[in-house]
Write a structure and sequence with these properties.
Elements (H helix, E strand, L loop, with lengths): L5 E4 L11 E4 L8 H18 L1 H10 L1 H6 L1 H10 L2 H8 L3 H12 L6
Antiparallel strand pairs: 1-2
Helix pairs in contact: 1-2, 4-6, 5-6
Length: 110
């Protein structure tokens, strides 16, 4: 698979019910996006131990990632079941719905 090409994920991360979910490889083609984000999180945590202000500045840039989740979260809230959402996110249904509500800026009623 080449740089920028789509791949199908059938890993435990997404569960068997999400066979065919797609992701895009980063420029070097070596790390799926989930792995890349985990590395970013780890690097910010390391930075926080030595330079908290720099870590805060780096984390602030990640706000864009949350903002870009609005439309996908809204789409998922309209088209996927709670069970499907939870399985895809690796969460229980309540936690998945809370996260979805936060990303889609929806009010969550319990």
């Amino acid at each position: 698979m080449g740089v920028g090409e789509r791949e199908s994920w059938t890993s435990e991360e997404f569960g068997a019910s999400h066979e065919g979910a797609v992701g895009v490889l980063p420029a070097d083609g070596s790390v799926p996006m989930a792995g890349l984000l985990a590395r970013v999180e780890s690097e910010i945590e390391k930075l926080a131990r030595t330079t908290p202000l720099a870590a805060l500045r780096a984390a602030r840039r990640l706000v864009i990632a949350v903002q870009t989740a609005y439309w996908p979260a809204l789409d998922v809230s309209r088209n996927a079941t709670g069970e499907q959402t939870a399985a895809a996110l690796g969460l229980n249904e309540d936690a998945a719905q809370d996260l979805l509500a936060r990303f889609a800026r929806l009010r969550r009623y319990h």
